[in-house]
Amino acid sequence: MWIPTEHEKYGVVLASFRGTVQHGLPLEIGDTVQILERCEGWYRGFILKNPNFKGIFPTSYIHLKNAHVKNKGQFETVIPVEDSVITEMTSTLRDWGAMWKQLYVKNEGDLFHRLWHVMNEILDLRRQVLVGHLTHDRMRDVKQHITARLDWGNEQLGLDLVPRREFSMVDPDEISVTELYRLMEHRHRKKETPAAASTHHLFVHVKSLMSANLGEELEVFFHIYDGRENRPLSERFFVKLNKSGLPKSPEKTERQCTLFVDLGSSDLRKDVYIVVHIIRIGRMGAGEKKNLCSVQYRRPFGCAVVSIADLLTADSKDDHLLKVYACNTESEWHQIHENLIKKANSRYNLSGSNTGLAVALQLLHGDIEQLRREYMVLFTRGVSITRKLGFSDVIMPGEMRNDLYITLERGEFEKGGKSVARNVEITVYVLDIDGLILKTHVAAGSGEPGGDEYHSLVLYHNNSPRWAEQIKLPIPVDMFRGSHVRFEFRHCSTKDKGEKKLFGYSFVPLMQEDGRTLPDGTHELIIHKCEENTNLADCPRYLKLPFSKVNLPSNNQTLKGTKESFWITSFLCSTKLTQNGDMLDLLKWRAHPERINDSLSKLKEIDGSEIVKFLQDTLDTLFGILDESSQRYGLKVFDSLVHIINLLQDSKFQHFKPVMDTYIESHFAGALSYRDLIKVLKWYVDRIVDAEHQDHIQQVLKASEYIFKYIIQSRRLFSLATGGQNEEEFRVCIHELFMSIRFFLSQENKSTSPVAQTQAVFLRTFPAVYGELLKIFTVREVAGFVRETLGSLPTAVHADCLEAVKLQCIAKTVESQLYTNPESRCILLPVVLRVLQAHMQEQRDLVMCARILTSMLSLIKKEEENGTAEPVVSEEVELIVESLLGVLLRTILEISNRPQPAGPTMRLQFQDVTGEFVACLLALLRQMSDRHYQQLLQAFSSKDNLRDFLLQIFTVFRILIRPEMFSKDWTVMRLVTNNVIITTVLYLSEALRKNFLNDKFDYKVWDSYFYLSVIFINQPCLQLESFSPSKRKRILEKYGDMRVMMGCEIFSMWQNLGEHKLNFIPAMIGPFLEVTLVPQPDLRNVMIPIFHDMMDWEQRRSGNFKQVEAKLIDKLDSLMSEGKGDETYRELFNSIIPLFGPYPSLLKKIERETWRESGISLIATVTRLMERLLDYRDCMKLGEVDGKKIGCTVSLLNFYKTELNKEEMYIRYIHKLYDLHFKAQNYTEASYTLLLYDELLEWSERPLREFLNYPMQSEWQRKEYLHLTIVQNFDRGKCWENGIILCRELADQYESYYDYRNLSKMRMMEASLYDKIMDQQRLEPEFFRVGFYGKKFPFFLRNKEFVCRGHDYERLEAFQQRMLNEFPHAIAMQHVNQPDQTIYQADAQYLQIYAVTPIPESQDVLQRDGVPDNIKSFYKFNHIWRFRYDRPFHKGTKDKENEFKSLWVERTTLTLVQSLPGISRWFEVDKRELVEVSPLENAIEVIENKNLQLRTLITQCQSRQMQNINPLTMCLNGVIDAAVNGGLARYQEAFFVKDYVMNHPEDGEKIGRLRELMFEQAHILEYGLTVHEKFVPQDMRPLHKKLVDQFHLMKSSLGIQEFPAYVRASPVHFTNGSPRTCRNSVPNIISPDGGRGVARRSYPAVNRYSSSSLSSQASNEVSNITGQSESSDEVFNMQPSPSTSSLSSNHSASPNVTSSAPSSARGSPQMAEKHKHSRENACLSPRDRPVSAIFPNPMDPAQRAAPHQIGDATLPRSDPNLSAPDKVRPTPSSWSLDSVKEGAPSFSDSFGKMLCPPVPPRPPYSAGSSAKNMRSQSPVSASRSPQKTTVPPFTPSPTECQSTSLVSNSPVLSGSYSSGISSLSRCSVSEASGTELPAGDHPAHPLPPPSTLPNSVSSSSDEPIRRENKTPPPYSVYERNNPRSRPVPLPHSLSIPPQADPPALPPKPHQLRTGSMKLDGTSDPRVPRPRPLPRKVSQL
Question: What is the C-alpha to C-alpha distance for residues 1223 and 1165, in angstroms, rounded to an integer?
């Protein structure tokens, strides 16, 4: 039986538990669990991080811990009883753990590793805390360290700032909001601005001296030197180095490391240096031989300097290599460092090229105790301390120091009978009063221990040596008296065994008779001569002698006259000894009473450091004098006391204040002093008003705090001593004193007057007196003093400075101990509130006002918690609310609306004050109870006042909710704010309902209320779904979901509105929609009925809810543009679909209404829009511009236009799309996009408003600007033909306005575009079909197929890789078959990609001879609607002898919704047609292609377009040589045999056609050989002869003796004796030089079923060499699928199968031998073919730059949708040169405006044309066709359409970009098909023609019907003039009126060039011009 647990409530999991038992709860080690019940060895409970999932687990797996239980029962919460820091550490580490792994995933390696180290460090510290063995101080340090690390990690990970007090987290409910704000601000500031340290320390670590020529030991001395004042700032640090240049004692780190301590900020200047002197210990001369002398001398070696400022910029951890300069002239040794500092380096040598002193230098900041904690290792392993000369900037009381520094400056010596100058060495000793040498009291510097003596360095042969060596004598204070220093001088001989001979000495006593020490400064000492063996041990004897030349009596001429002298400089740094005689006189006042007056006067001149040394003694002296003779010296003693008190205010001595406090408490004994002090103080106060000079009085008032301390302590001592006598007298004195003070304060003065300044001085110090007065007076008495004193200040104060000081005084009062007492508070509060209210109303001194208010409210909260009586607190709150609530709200509004000041410090202060006031407001509102709210609302005298208050408080609340109100990581503060706001709103909503409903309805207040509620719910800090589970749980436990509370309040208020709801429709739709987007089910349940209500009320009012719909759609889009669509809100946005889709509550309600249908329609529209917006949101998150973004924008743009008819949105997205294209450098697409907006505008003068980036301008100006921008982009995109049309349109406009200047420019621009067409090279793009299958794709791609225009130079494998990069989770499909439903419905992404071949619409240009390739290339790849892909397969049994019998082709034609290029690089496939081409039809195609190719080459050769004859030679060789080995015979075997003819009677005509083509080919070959003979060079003659011989064999194999008549009569009749290509055929696209071919991807040399394609392997090789097998004679254009079309360009297909992959390499003259093997590979069926063929290999470089291909123009097969009769219609042979000319008369007058000539010509003025005008066939006279009579009508197969008007099926159009010649040979022997639609078949609405050139002919007679369902708007320039049929109305400038007449052929170009051009279709005034959208452009 399960029993609820009583004490076992909380535990930690010891081992992981899988939870495999029934109801088992899986546990991981370290999880914390809350236990609910227990049963026989099992617990039931949940893991704290996932409280929703409960289960059972074994008790043995749990370690129980103590815990408090709150709210016992169902909703109990458990709080572990442990250190709060431990709890925080545990939860924080858990949160970090998950985020830490994410850092790894996001590849943020640096933070990942740093966080890992910090987490380990925290875990280690946590262990130490848990063990509990730490001392109290260490525990404190560890906790501080832990919290610092936690804060660092939280900041790095973007987590919340944790408010703390004493390292523990603070519960925001337990402290005042003002205090919470202060804590947050303090932590924030601490994080932002670390306080600049005032103390700095330099760490020096000597590593080594690197030098080649050492060999001697060295002494290195460091000191800090002031280059400005030329004096050392510190004592010396001394290191000994061995002969190798390394430290002598490497194990003693303190001997090589030091800390130069107590450097002030002023010492970190550019002219402060570290100076290093190096002394060598050895022989006199550096090069002397060793055996000369064994005595060691200290000799100069070198010097180095480095500026301290350099260390501030350099990396502190770097080692520095200091350059060491050697001193050449020893006489300059004393100033070598000065010369180096002055950059006079040239006079010194570097002591070696690689000589340098390696040292580590680092500047450390902060006080020394802080450094001990932070750099513990430094201090534990040992570091010597090197002190400053003198005291630091701040002197601490207790600091003990007694150091005498003596610098050996210089000496003057006589030669002493020697021929050369002496080598003088000084030995220094310190001797005590008894003449004994003080051991270890002579130190060369820190680092090394002190010695008994010191030897100076020796300067060679110098009688005036300058040493400048500083030594330190740390002599104890008690030994100072009687001690002296002795200097012995010796001559160091370099001969005589190097002996040192004594020749004199000097001495100096350390203390004078009167107790003063040796004064600081330079002393000239007398050198007393002596002999070598003189005994100096007898000190008393020489101490009687004079020691200094200054002190010599005038009669001692002998010593005065001597030239020998010795100079030293002394400096004492002592906390106990003084050199000041005046100080000593004052301290010994009893010995000389007559000097008291003088000594007191001189006290002010004594240096402060001397006074603080003897502070207690000095104070005792002063009060001693006061007690003995107060009448005589009272005033002077008072002034001296004031001087000392004010001295301690100085920052240098401020740390001595505690010394004085201690003195007052413990040592002060002046029990009678209070009378004199009160008397003198009152005397000064009474003189204030009349005194001229206020300076001294101000000094007195500054010291008033300590004067009162002395007064009060003195009185207490007196009371103790006398039992409280004279109490009344004392009180009277104090009252009188305050009366005097009040009198002087009440004086009104100008701010500049001295009295006003004195008043300010007093007010500054006054609050410090309260505490002292409380020691004697009661709380009420002191409060009375304060109230009266502050009240005595004049009310109309003119002095601003005095006002500020008054406020500071009140601030200190509020913060004082006096104010904390409720008794005194009730006296002081009115005064404080009065002053505060006045200041805040005038917006003055707001910072101080905020500080005062903060203190007051913090105190109220504390009082409440401490259990102060409720009425007291309540009364105070009531007072504050009454006085300050209104003014506080106004102040916050005022500050928030003020422009922020510029300076950073000002801005910081500004933000501070706003935050402080906000915290005060929140604290005040939180303190208010029901009663306070009732009183507040009742207090308003009128409705208007209440209304103003409500509007004010709602506005302030909106300000508080702003994201910028608090820092991003202040979640705690935001939650408290929200809690206060929602509580207040609940109180105020009642007032709203009572006072502003029904007849008193006030829209403004209600609107403000709703607006506040909405932004409250939408705050990021309340979106709990985005938080971690632990954070969410904490918030829910503490505050609940405040969004739901506010939602319920909105609903409740909405229901109260009644008929007033109509005021908020549609205004509140957007805001409420935002609320419903919050992914909170409860909130949504509350809010959705409001929508139904709105729709219902709107329906009642206006009969529909169009307003609701419009507002919804606008809001959805704006939410997206506000950035609501980022990753965090993915779920939030998805929620709209359930909201308006299957969400039960709304739909059910709607379905019951009368307006059900329109409601559901609205929901459907919004849902579809939402899907697109979601896609758009997702795509826009990606970094770079890619197809997804563009495709998605296109989808949304079309939706806004076609479905929603929202013109402004539509135009906005046009520009977004334009920006995307422009950024991606898709200039052509950018132009087409901008055209959409251009087409919405007219050439009118209507003014347009400012919109997007367009200024206010007329419609004409904007359209002109757009035209110019579009032309510029077309130019960049090399789409010059499109630019020309727009140039013409603009030119016409300029011409109509007679703006000839611009007209000229436009004509020149047009001309330049023509030049570019002819001169510049254009890359031919490739096209790829992409299928997106699976549910994981965005909505606009899902289960759709597209055709994409590739980037320049982009081939299939590159495109595939790009797509896989864009969709990294997609799987590439390895086949080209249509996928089945399982793929469509899969939860995955599948990509199917293969290349497709464009089918150009503009055949006319492509089939004309004489049109340059540069022009044709445009028409081959622009305005393409249809694409083709061919797949070969065998049907039936495969004949191994002759595969062609069973080889069929499956041809897929894809029709797009829009032509490419357009507004996107890819468009969706609208229609898919599948046709199977029979083997016989293939054969016909192949031979047609080859014939056309041969004709083209022959024509080019004849017209000298080819520079050499090689292409023709190759082609002839490929055809004839193949025939030797079978060639056309294979076709004969397959199709001309009896069996085939019997089995396929329906193919009779086709067999006849094939026969004709074979004969025709033979005839062309014969003529070709004739031409070849004419041009063939001499060295090729043998080949030519071979070709002629083989041709005769081929003819005989075909059985041809003589060509039949019909062949002879056929177009073999070449013009000028050459085979004539028809006017419409296209000459070879290869230019004669062959070098102008565009570099393209070369695809496999794929064989067409020409005669050459059936040749032997040898023939294959020839065809490979000649490139024929890859030219456009290919049998059919098999599109490369992943298994065929994507064959590598390095592989050619087999002789039987060809790839129609786009390639300019077909027909490339060369192809490597290695590529031939894949011919066989390619002809396998898709199943047999190896998968490696799917992704093409990189192509050979040799193949990249293939020239344009020689090609044919094989036509696509006819549309199977048409019946046979429709498909066949006789037309004359297109061989007729004049066919077009003769067709001209039938050109209809009603022919529409044809605007797209081949290189576009001028348009005619004719009326707009129907689509069918474009699809007319060539009605040329029959008599022109020689074949018509000789050949029976040839019926095309179901897969063939014979019209010359059909688009060519050549490889150039359907797979090979290299060929472009129409297959006209078929038409030459047959009746061309292609029916015109009868008049009755015209569609009901005008069918715009395909986007072809006007004089091109349509691709299929069924096209008008097929185009009918195109949805998107016209996107191409040509579509503006030749639009396809679409359901959406065209812009008026594009619309074409319907025509009743059948289409006529377009005229020749010269006929179209008549008249001027008008592009906008305005030529016929009768034509109605429908607009595409409701005109709202006027607002745009």
Answer: 32
